Amino acid sequence: MINKYLSVIAIERTLDGGEVEVLPLKPGVNLLVGAPNTGKTKWLQMLDHLLGDQDSFDQVFLEDLVRKYESTAAILQVGDDEIRVERRWKTPGSKTKVYVDDVEMSAKDFQHYLMELLEIPLLHFPKGNPMSGQTWPELSFRMLLRHMHHQQRFWSGLVDQQPEGEQLACLMQFLGLAENVYNDSYGKLVQLKLDLEKLKARREQFGRTLLQLSKGAVSTSDEATSLTIEAVERAEQSLEEQQQALLARRAQAITDASSKAFALDNHKIVTRLTEARAALVRLRTDLALKRELNAGRISDIEQYRNDLVTELERLDRTLAAGSVLADLKITHCPACDRAVEPVIGDDESCHLCHRLLPDEPPEETQGVLRIEFEQTRLKAEVKEADQLLNSLHAEQKEIISEWDASTEQIATADTKLKPAREAVAGLVSEEVSSIDVAMGSLNEKQSQLSRVRGAVELSQQLSQEIAEKENDLAPLQSSVDQLAAKADFDLAEERLESGLGEYLRRISELKPESWRHSLPRVSLTRSSFSIKIGQKKWSAALGATDTLFLIMSYHYGLLTLSPYSDCHYPGFAIIDLPGDFLGDDIEDKENFIVQPFIELLRTEEFQGAQVIFTGASFKGLEGAHRIQLETPYVE
Fold first, then answer.
1. Whole-prediction pTM value?
2. How far is CA 11 from CA 46, 48, 171, 492, in A?
């Protein structure tokens, strides 16, 4: 046997009183036989819950079962390994836990563990369109189990209530295709294509916005071709030249007005006053900065001094507490609580332990010395901090005095310059105002150009990212194509189709005309799976009984995949047949649908595989392990 098969040796459930009920099973075909309400389906549901259900027992089963039992367990055979799996919902904190050989783990971790034992690769798959942008979920053991366990209530489809994308992923896993189709490279390729689409859409939208933003800031000829950094730089240079020309005009206008308003001597006086005022403004600005920095230093030193004082107070309290506690003596033995009296005349030994006293000072004395040393050091640092604070406060006072003096001098200069300003303002106000308006317009254009430059740089960055991703796309696509080439869809179709047809041919031999249609045709691609009868989908072509035959052939077909080394079906199936399968007292009429499974699992390559059937009779069916259930487990 190349692949590892999964089988159940026994299912156990422990009653609230401690008694254990056991359902023994064997490799091969197992028949759970009994009238309605004898617990066939409940046993299988409990097994299903044991196999990694993430819900707790009380979320899955009715309250009477929750009260009646305290735990369930199963002994599983996985290849050569035997493990015991248990769920204990009445143990605090264990409702959703799984115990594997008494080792606690989460239901998800148990699924990973089981897939590792079965050597089924753990991977992720796309739900629906891979390019939808949705996160790829994990292809879990519970998803696979829905193909292996056909519950009694779901006989309308191959795998009822499972989305098509998930169903396809499970089938690809069983057929050994998933690891080549849903590989890491494919996931990266899909993500890369999504990122490329987003970047291109963003660049296109950005380009339209950029053209609107650049109107009036970049020349029409540049706009007509494409917005580049070079075009923006030419526009910025043109603006700079215009600004310099306006500044020169403004300075010349003020100079001409000054010459007209004052005689030469007065003009020199105004110039000296203006220069002196500018120097005073610079001085006051420097003083304001020094005042702010000095205030910060003062704040830091004050905080440091406060911390030192706090530490000193803490040491004072420690010293005081030590002096109080030092007088406490041992007067009674800690073992027998009798009074201990010192031996008179023996001052060299401890009166309690009778060992010689050390020559060095006691530990508590050393502690006091250390505390006093720390106090001395801290007091010195407080004194140093006080001296530094006094120096900083004096410096701050001097800076404030200089700042006040410079402010007064600036006010005096403004008073002297006021007549000259008024005289010049009357001559230059109109021309200078028009120049200032033009300068404001140029400044706004310059701001707009700065925004355009940033936008153009971002657009170029987007183009660079797109180019880099497109360069990464080719080798990744090649890697995906190489892996996809290993996924032989034709061979997979042929294998599954052969299993379906083999089963239907065999039941027709056992019961002539039980299958009166053409054999199913399987179609499988990376994105779809279908089974057709003739030209129609099987669900549209078949009635109720024929649907059941096809579903049985599907389970048979999956089982036939088990021996293939490149497939990942674990040779295990649970088929909970519907009670009204043939609509009347069936007795042995259901035997022919089970017989092909018995014959298949008898062969050497299927040793270790297991199928569990439920039914009302299976009378006279040989070659299977029969378990008769007679007593109802739930009233």
1. 0.60
2. 9, 11, 28, 34
Tell how strand 28-33 and strand 97-100 pair up.
unpaired
| % residues pLDDT > 70 (the chain) | 76
**Predicted confidence (pLDDT) per residue in 163-177, tens digit:** 888 999 999 999 998
Beta bridge partners of 100: 85, 103
Sheet strands side by side (includes 97-100): 20-24, 6-15, 69-78, 81-87, 97-100, 103-106
Banded model confidence at residue 327, pLDDT cuts 50, 70, 90 = low
56 CB-near residues (< 8 Å, 6+ apart): 89, 95, 96
Token readout for 419 is 């007549």
- As a whole number of angstroms, the distance between CA 626 and CA 579 comes to 18
- Would you give the DSSP letter of residue 64? H
Residue 83's DSSP bridge partners are 76
Helix axes 107-118, 141-148, angle to 10 degrees: 70
The span from the CA of 186 to the CA of 197, in Å, is 17
Task: Lowest mean pLDDT of 66-80, 115-129, 466-480, name the range.
Answer: 466-480
Beta bridge partners of 522: 531
> What's the pLDDT at 362?
55
Say how many Å lie between the first and final Cα of the chain, rounded: 44
Reported as a single tens digit per residue, the pLDDT across 335-389 is: 777 777 766 666 667 766 767 766 655 555 566 778 888 888 888 888 888 898 8
Centre a 10 Å sphere on the Cβ of residue 408 and count the other Cβ atoms it contains: 10
pLDDT in tens, 203-254: 776 666 666 666 655 654 444 345 666 776 777 777 777 778 877 777 776 6
Residue 56, sorted as left (phi over 0), alpha (psi -120 to 50) or beta, turns out to be beta
Please, is 246 exposed, middle or buried when counting C-beta atoms within 10 Å of its C-beta (0-12, 13-18, 19+)? Answer: middle
Mean pLDDT of 507-533: 91
Q: What is the largest CA-CA distance in the chain?
A: 136
Read off the DSSP letter of residue 518.
P
Ordered alpha helix ranges (H), 138-263: 141-148, 164-174, 178-181, 184-214, 220-225, 229-261
What mean pLDDT value characterizes the chain? 81
The beta-carbon contacts of 161-166 under 8 Å, at least 24 apart in sequence, are: 163/127, 163/128, 164/529, 165/125, 165/126, 165/127, 165/128, 166/125, 166/127
Structural contact between residues 315 and 371, judged by C-beta atoms closer than 8 angstroms: yes
What lies within 8 Å, CB to CB, of 607 at 6+ separation is: 1, 27
* Residue appearing with tokens 């007005």: 257
Task: Please state, in angstroms and as integers, the Cα–Cα distance from residue 220 to each residue in 217, 231, 235, 238, 514, following that order.
Answer: 9, 11, 11, 14, 82
Of 96, 159, 172, which Cα lies nearest the Cα of 487?
172
Q: Which pLDDT does position 539 carry in this prediction?
A: 87
Contacts of 483 (CB under 8 A, 6+ apart): 180, 181, 183, 185, 186
CB 414 within 8 A of CB 270: no
